[in-house]
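Case study.
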Amino acid sequence: MSKKIRSNPIGIKLNRRTFLKGAAAGLAAAALPIQAAEAFSWETFLQKHFKEMTDEEIKRVIERLEKEASLEWRKEIHISAAKAKPGVKFGYGLDLSRCIGCRKCVSACVRENNQSRTPQVHWISVLRFKKGEKWIDLENSEKYYNPKLVPEEGHFYMPVQCQQCENPPCVKACPTQATWKEPDGIVVIDYNWCIGCRYCMAACPYGARQFNWAKPNIPQNEVNPETHYLGNRPRDKGVVEKCTFCIQRTRAGKYPACVEACPVGARKFGNLLDPKSEIRYLIENKRVFRLKEDLNTEPKFYYFFTGWQV
Amino acid sequence: MVDAIKVFLKSLIRLPKGGMVFYAWVAFLLVLIGFGLSVYAKQLDRGLIITAMRNQVSWGFYIANFTFLVGVAAAAVLLVIPAYLYQFKPIKEIVLFGEMIAITAVTMCILFIMVDLGQPLRILHILPKPIGMMNFPASLLAWDVIVLSGYLLINSLLVLYTLYRLSVGKEYKLSLVLPLILLSIPWAISIHTVTAFLYNGLSARPFWNASILAPRFLASAFCSGPALMLIILQLMRKFSKVEIDNKAIFKISELIAYTMGINLFLLGAEIFKEFYSGGIHKAPLEYLYFGLHGKNLLTPWMWASLIANITAFIIFLIPKTRENFVTLNIGAVLIFIGVYIEKGLGLIIPGFIPDSLGEIYEYWPTNTESIITIGIWAVGALLYTLMVKFAIPIYTGELMAENRAAAQKAK
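After joint prediction, the assembly is written out as follows.
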């Protein structure tokens, strides 16, 4: 038995010393790809802040990033740098009386935005509360509920994601201006400028910001190749990320992935500056509230109740 | 000037020469630094996932140590005030070694920030344009970078100037250094204030967002820094030719009695406000001292810290015990431990518990974090040892005398 284990598949007999040598060489070779993948490049090191680059420079940087990402993920990846449209300020509405806590929005978001699967990164947290209990301080919420069927008797749900504050504490906190509010109201991050200090995470009152504690891991066939520089392009470890209202979709005139995925139509989205938009209608006609309004962060994320129960 | 350079060079050449104790100490520190470096290499490769920090508790042991050490850097200013301004002789002689503690502590602060970064190579992004994009004046972290590097610079200049004057056998000219000294006092207070404001300014974190935070910060800093000084001064007296007057040591311990008294009072004020009014913002304090929803990882440590601080306060309050070296040293060690817990994990972690969505994630550092932390403390110890060893022969006038003798011979 022991002899069988020791003989190698090619049938060459090895003495202990050769085996050790081989093992050492093998280990060294195994270590190489890690180094190659993380090789230092002056181009990356010297890359400027997104807002400091000219359109020409952005084009060149994106070409390089696309090449790198395509090589890494073995498929063609496109990175857009589409700008905010004038006259647009995005706003979001969430109907708490409709939400059934199914978390389809979470999984749609993860797939659309290339979030790491291991370790898991979620931009949306759905909180479950017991009806009739104090809930507004969130302390009695349960994030890791796991029933066979939703909605559960006696419970209601509240999804939380980046509230896209008009007065964002995270932007104020960032020491390197790696995060800022775009003209269409979306708070974005330059993943190539973020130093990973996580001060923004301490500053955010909504737990919206997620850190890449390890290198993001996504199954190759699930990588979404249609990306935006400030949104869902593949990230490196050691940087912060967050919901961008699916900037790659919304700037192209589409709904965010979570809005499309919601099976009960609890999620609404639109242009706050357009008086005829759905979001304006519900702000003007429903009873809306925003999370932690006492902090004066002025979220553009409105919770409301239609009274219509699932 | 030439004389001074000669003396400096001589001291530098003698730096690696020493007895068995010195070599053993340096070798010990180098081993610890080596361990720290190798574990840090692993952290760089795999990411901060090998720490216990997560999205719920996004800062941990590294930032806790950083915060504590900003406090230790205060030691210098507490000695500077009586030394330079009131010409209190016994302390004036040792102020040099206090300033060196400040240099060491700030260096360690920078290292703790570096190991906490997800992308340490991008650190230059924090500088002003055109190199970086410093978010000044909006970000308190940008302020912290400015005050900490300024403090490092001021103290380095003061130490260099003092050593220069000593190497030519003269007292320093007060008229020359006075502006720098006058600047260094508010500056030292500013590094604490700004670091406190860094946490204080976040309305998302009710535990930090209390106006008492900055004053408590200062009070506890003015305990832990001098407590460390007390121990180091006695060690120096034992292992070198430097003479340190008992008067200086007793004066420092008297100061600790006042600052610890204020520290405990401020803590009491905070506990009263939170628990008596009983709003939801008492949750982090409740977590610290009693546990929250059955989670109480830090509770025994917080009580240990409180008991250590109260005991030390009594020791330093009573003249008999603060002027007895056995009890004095017990008191100094107790304060160091007490403040290390209170102002380290006891300050950072409750900022995140419960987290902003009400979740409780209990944090305790992993071995990775502990080994890297020990490594940085070893770097600090090594830096301080070498600085003191460099300064002592200049300080005692030993080298100057040799230099003069040699010069006379040449004539």
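Observations recorded in class. The longest strand of chain A covers residues 90-95. Confidence is low (pLDDT under 50) at residues 1-15, 25-37 of chain A. We will return to this complex in the next lecture.
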